Amino acid sequence: MKNLILETENLSKQYGEQMAVRNVSLQIERGSIYGLLGPNGAGKSTTLKMLVGLLRPTGGRIILDGRPWQRESLSKIGSLIESPALYGNLTAEENLLVHTRLLKIPKTKITEVLETVNLKNTGKKRVSQFSMGMKQRLGIAAALLNDPELLILDEPTNGLDPFGIQELRELIVSFSEKGMTVILSSHILSEVSQVADTIGIISGGKLLFQGMPDSDENLENFFTEVILKGGKNCEWTEI
Questions:
Q1: What does the pLDDT look like over 106-124, one tens digit per residue?
Q2: Which among 16, 44, 219, 226 is least buried, having the fewest CB atoms inside 10 angstroms?
Q3: Which residues does the UniProt record annotate as the domain ABC transporter (predicted)?
Q4: Is 82 left (phi over 0), alpha (psi -120 to 50) or beta?
Q5: Residue 35, strand partner residues
């Protein structure tokens, strides 16, 4: 029996006559890294925003730890959706202090998460002087303040140079090694293929594939085939 931390059943989001997400049923195993792949505009961000309560689903349901999603579920979830919300005139520590006060978390947690993302020694340097990679890592640090069981990262490598991408990749793998579950959305196939245990391919708001292609399968070719065929002729792999 699968040990799922999160699943969705026919999750949908409609704007007027447009279906942004259509009957998406995800299965996320506890402790895994789940790569949600798709072209820009495929419905990835909309799906993730529903998982963290930023958008209300039009249909379907979300189940976390075997229970229907409620506002209280957010205590188990950390997220970085799109760009991190940071104050450029504050230091890394000061930015996180704002979050601890909002979340009513002891400020002693700040040192721990800054060490986790390798930003402990930034001192009085203002965030406006940070590189893009440092800002992304600070956004992840904020997401870690509540000790989440599930970490959701939406396109975290956007705008990063190769060194920043490598740092972030190693960080994500370290979370999984500690037992945390990570959902990572991206349109960069090579990055996801290096860290993900399971992938979901979404296009046009539909989940076309969920599982892992054969080890000898080229992910880029597989992805293209799934997108072009709309998933109709693809074999589904159990996760």
A1: 999 999 999 999 999 998 9
A2: 16
A3: 6-229
A4: left
A5: 184, 199
